[in-house]
Design goal:
Number of strands: 3
Number of helices: 5
Order of helices and strands: EEEHHHHH
Helix content: 40-55%
Distance between the termini: 55 Å
């Protein structure tokens, strides 16, 4: 370890990968995990990071699922009811492999929400609330929750 020039960078093979991230600690009254896309960067424990290794399950798809009401409720009820959002908790969330049609719908909804959030910077805009509602309804349908 002393002679390896990379030894001081434990986990360096995981740095500079695009993916998604979330805050390590949530507000106790939070209603979402608030997962966001992460550009290629160095990881830090204050913002946990993962990335998809499956081409059929892109990062934006997982971000959309994790930001849904359904998966937040699942997370809170069955995985972890504390304010700390651990990486292994997120790994336990069931992810449905989408069909091409489902992936297209989710991508369109993700892009609408991303564009609205980027342009508006408000979580209370009526357009964003409408897109979030469409996302939640579609994810409920995807997970066969009516």
């Amino acid at each position: 370890m002393k002679t390896d020039p990379k030894a001081r960078y434990q986990g360096y093979t995981f740095f500079f990968k695009e993916g998604f991230c979330w805050n390590n600690v949530l507000n106790p009254l939070a209603r979402l995990l608030k997962v966001k896309m992460k550009s290629a960067s160095v990881n830090d424990v204050g913002s946990m990071s993962l990335s998809s290794v499956f081409p059929k399950i892109p990062n934006y798809y997982i971000v959309t699922l994790l930001n849904s009401d359904l998966l937040f409720e699942y997370y809170r009820e069955y995985l972890n009811c504390t304010v700390n959002v651990q990486i292994n908790d997120i790994r336990q969330i069931p992810i449905i492999v989408p069909s091409f049609g489902d992936l297209k719908v989710i991508q369109d909804l993700f892009n609408k929400a991303y564009k609205n959030k980027k342009n508006n910077l408000s979580t209370n805009s009526s357009e964003l609330i409408a897109v979030e509602s469409q996302m939640n309804n579609y994810i409920n349908k995807l997970y066969k929750i009516q």
